[in-house]
TrEMBL record:
Top-level taxon of the source organism: Bacteria
Transmembrane helix as UniProt keyword: no
Keywords: Hydrolase, Nucleotide-binding, Signal
Family per record: Belongs to the 5'-nucleotidase family.
Pfam families found in the cross-reference section: 5_nucleotid_C, Metallophos
Location of the 5'-Nucleotidase C-terminal domain: 290-427
InterPro entries found in the cross-reference section: 5'-Nucleotdase_C (IPR008334), 5'-Nucleotdase_C_sf (IPR036907), 5_nucleotidase/apyrase (IPR006179), Calcineurin-like_PHP (IPR004843), Metallo-depent_PP-like (IPR029052), Pesterase_YunD (IPR011240)
Protein name as it appears in the record: Bifunctional UDP-sugar hydrolase/5'-nucleotidase
GO MF annotation list: hydrolase activity
Limits of the Calcineurin-like phosphoesterase domain: 8-205
Keyword Iron: no
Lineage: Bacteria, Bacillati, Bacillota, Bacilli, Bacillales
Length: 466
């Protein structure tokens, strides 16, 4: 006799609630159909369901996301970096208190007190036919960020080996919920023989029909709820072995929306508006935002960044602010709308010659006009780089690029051999946007503060001036 086990999953929603009613409708319908058939079925999420770019996620600090997952009938979830490192320690500690699903993440632990009651390294479940399933979760090891928030995140592979060694003794099938990214998932599949399925996320990859490496099926469903994923496992009770592994993804854009979810989202949106409708300042005059020009607000924000981090100088891209502030009351919702990014302030150390190269690159059209998605940035383009603590003289040539003529710090030309502490957005410490910044051996991140917290401070300071 053979038995089929069904798993439906989501990953990397990033609070894209426009798609959630279709996703919820699809997974609820699939689970209902399977249960009517007498088939075993589970719903799982692979992390980054929360993203504070959305006002609902911001107002409820992710707890509304948990409610939506409860309502959809999820059974298991793991944490993504957007759950893990975009909230204060106490907010993450309480995030899943009301979850009716199990949260599994084997490589995350609290450094200040006991782990939250909801956090477990592995979970166990069983099919109607008695097939024993073990589930382990892992999250991306952004160690520097986690430790600043009083969480310890361990290396995934040694942690996984330990958990799988234990799971083998008690289960028939092992499933990894991996918020590590595709390359890490592939490496795990190559190096470990006992994991049957890796359901992945983090790098937003879409594996429409899965990928087999050795005996492990890898799958993932892209990002933002455009697709929902399905895994079908076939267990042979006579041979006591797994004889089939299938993976599919479904484009949900054409599917009907779940009306209950729509109503819940509307209610949450109304409540989020109320919670964020808290006045911060009152502006007598509007404040302009221009992505390719220096404005008073961006100059003040960059200066506040320098002062707050106690850096020698600061640099910040004008695309950080998405819209201007009209005259009148400015609320928390306005500040969130204009600066919605999951970006933290940071400082780096650069030699004078490295800093000069960074300034040169930051003013090129290639960078200022770059459309960026990711690295915490939730805007449109990077925009003009604004400086504080540095006098940067430039000239715009016929090709449209802005060329650096001279850079002075406290009236003196940059010393190529001197070390400068520069404040900026943590976005630039990742990837290859500004290579010298990313390669800096000394970086200090400021958490849990986000750039919008400094924007709020800047507005208060600006309007309080006589």
């Amino acid at each position: 006799m053979q038995e089929k086990l069904y798993f439906y999953y989501t990953n990397d929603l990033h609070s894209n609630f426009d798609n959630w009613p279709q996703v919820a409708g699809f997974v609820k319908d699939q689970k209902s159909r399977m249960l009517v058939k007498g088939a075993s079925c589970w719903l799982v999420d692979i992390g980054d369901h929360v993203d504070r770019v959305d006002p609902i996620a911001e107002a409820f600090l992710g707890k509304a996301n948990v409610r939506l997952m409860n309502d959809a009938g999820f059974d298991f979830a793991t944490l993504g970096n957007n759950e893990g490192i975009t909230m204060a320690h106490e907010d993450l500690h309480e995030l899943y208190n009301d979850a009716v699903f199990e949260v599994v993440c084997a490589n995350l632990h609290s450094m200040t007190d006991s782990d939250p009651d909801w956090l477990q390294s592995v979970a166990y479940t069983q099919s109607f036919g008695g097939v024993r399933v073990g589930i382990v979760g892992l999250t991306a090891p952004f160690r520097t960020f986690y430790e600043l928030l009083d969480w310890r995140v361990s290396d995934p592979l040694p942690t996984l080996k330990k958990q799988v060694h234990h799971l083998k003794k008690h289960t028939d099938i092992i499933i990894l919920l991996s918020h590590l990214g595709l390359s890490e998932d592939q490496e795990i599949a190559r190096r470990m023989d006992d994991i049957d399925v890796i359901i992945g996320g983090h790098t937003h990859h879409l594996l429409r029909t899965g990928e087999m490496i050795n005996h492990t099926m890898l799958t993932a469903a892209g990002k933002h709820g455009a697709f929902a994923g399905e895994v079908i496992l076939t267990w042979d009770h006579a041979s006591q072995s797994l004889v089939g592994q299938e993976a599919y993804t479904t484009d949900i854009s054409h599917l009907p929306k779940d009306m209950e979810t729509m109503e819940t989202l509307q209610s949450l949106s109304d409540e989020a508006d109320r919670l964020l409708d808290e006045p911060v300042v009152h502006l007598e005059e509007p404040l302009e935002v221009k992505w390719f020009q220096r404005t008073l607000l961006m100059q003040r924000l960059t200066a506040v960044l320098q002062q707050w981090t106690r850096a020698d100088a600061a640099m910040l891209n004008a695309g950080m602010l998405l819209d201007h502030f009209p005259a009148g009351a400015v609320t928390k919702k306005d500040i969130h709308r204009i600066c919605p990014h999951s970006i933290n302030p940071c400082t780096i150390q650069l030699q004078g010659d490295e800093l000069l190269e960074v300034i040169r690159v930051s003013l090129t059209k290639d960078l200022t006009e770059m459309k960026l998605k990711g690295f915490g940035f939730r805007g449109e383009i990077i925009g003009k780089m604004i400086f504080a603590g540095l006098d940067v003289d430039t000239v715009v040539r016929k090709d449209g690029n802005e060329y650096v003529q001279s850079v002075r710090h406290h009236g003196k030309k940059l010393d190529p051999d001197k070390t400068y502490t520069i404040a900026t957005a943590d976005t630039f410490t990742f990837g290859r946007l500004l290579p010298e910044v990313a390669k800096s051996e000394v970086k200090h991140y400021f958490l849990p503060e986000m750039m919008r917290d400094l924007l709020s401070h800047t507005l208060k300071k600006y309007v309080s001036k006589p």
